[in-house]
User: What shape does this take?
Amino acid sequence: MPFQRSKTQLEITQDQHDVLSRVSSSRTDQARRVERAKLLLLLDEGQHPNEIGKQLSMKTLKIYRLLNKALELGPIAALDDLKRSGRPPEITPDAHAWITSLACQKPKDLGYSYEVWTTRLLSRHVREKALYAGHPSAVNIGSATISRLLSGQDIKPHKVEYYLERRDPDFDEKMAQVLIVYQQVEWCLQDGSAQTREMVVVSYDEKPGIQAIGNTAPDLPPVPGKHATVQRDHEYVRYGTLSLLAGIDLMTGRVIGSVEDRHRSCEFVAYLKKFNEEYPNTAKIQFILDNHSAHTSKETRAYLQTVPNRFEFVFTPKHAS
Assistant: This one.
């Protein structure tokens, strides 16, 4: 007598079949989902669980469980594990909130010499202070649990990221002035009027404290079989520091630089004079620069009065360069 099913026939629609086929041939999906998709496709073809078990060297009970799950929840839902109740959390919500608040404080504010938390330091602090703070559920907490709790809150107290504090009350106005200048430059470059325009726009900055160093021994070139790279002695001689003053003409891309021993008003004025000689007397030179004291000193202002309407300074907001 032919075998007759004692269970309801598993019915898989065409859309579900397409999903199962895609999962069964996936190389990136989870292995258990791929295996379950293949089993469901074999069951859909009418193969008996016993036959599938022999064919794949798999326990028949496992296949029956998947079949029951698919009949109850549907074939697509049967691909994933069911949510389990699991063990109730040991750390209470109040303790969790307390740990989060600790992570958002600096260790120095709590008497430690460290600047930032580590999970080991924070877990030790929590264990020592939990009873006193009224959170006995956290007295045995470990570093791994701390890490998991903070990850769930997307808090990383062991890392430092830098931000820029707004210290200039006229920040928005100065920012708009700088952006307008750059926008005008872009328009001039787009319409081809950059070369004929009587305005020179320069983005200017300085790099002070550049070390001038020299070797104490000659470099050794690569030698086959001995060393493949240039060899350089680790010792060096300091010759002092230099300052680089440089500006780029935003219309032409030309860079004019000057290397100086120091960076004071006299060096900045000398740089302006150098720029003044590079362009026709009819051109107006617009400088975009920061708020260094040399740019607004009495000596600088005195020089600008000797060349009226020649230079125009557009300052970036303070503490924003």
In short: The longest strand covers residues 199-215. The longest helix spans residues 171-191. The two ends are 89 Å apart (CA to CA).
